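Supplementary Note 3. Input sequence used for the single-chain structure prediction.
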Amino acid sequence: MGFFFTPLDLILSSGSKLRLLRVLHGTRSPVSGREAAAAAGVAVQPAQRALADLVAVGVVNRHETRSQHLYTLNRENVLVQGALGQLFQAEAARVEEVFRDLARAVGGNTGRAVEGLYLFGSAARGKDRVGSDFDVVAVVSAPSDVDAVHETLAQSADQLYTRYGLRLSVLVLDLGKLREMRGDGDALVAELLRDNRRITGKRLEALLHGHTGKQKGS
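The predicted structure, written as discrete structure tokens, is reproduced below.
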């Protein structure tokens, strides 16, 4: 089949093109090729070749200036309005859905046993790959809460894999232990503070400093 019948073969033929399209989908402002490459994590020369292909098939606009080319997503293109736009919107919504499912799993315990739930590790840093563990830590009020909360989250593992392809790995720490580990300069706590993404509950920094106010959102 040629380009007319199967344009997605060319548009989505490489990871570089997909990453550049994701960057352009996320901004309305024109960006230079170097800016797009840096945001997408693609080397400049491969990014230039990929952008040239995307311009040629009409899903990206190139604007000429005196000093550089600027690029925007062609939001009037039917593939951008339909398939591509929906794909990127679903990808962004997936993060919120994962967090919502995990928060719901511990929902009956939040505010009583569960002080906070956090993503950490390679997924939180944006460095995970297919098959990487999806590391989640729950901070609970007391040592007696650890086993029950761990079991609650472990029961979500199969659903998380079926719905999202994520391999859940759960760590549950009681708040006193976590504060003790921080006082000892524990490397895990340093990693958690540096990289965590809050799923539900209190912010980790607030927990470790003894603040009690809750904040909404993840």
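Residues 119 and 136 are 5 Å apart (CA to CA). Residues 211-218 have pLDDT under 50 and may be disordered.
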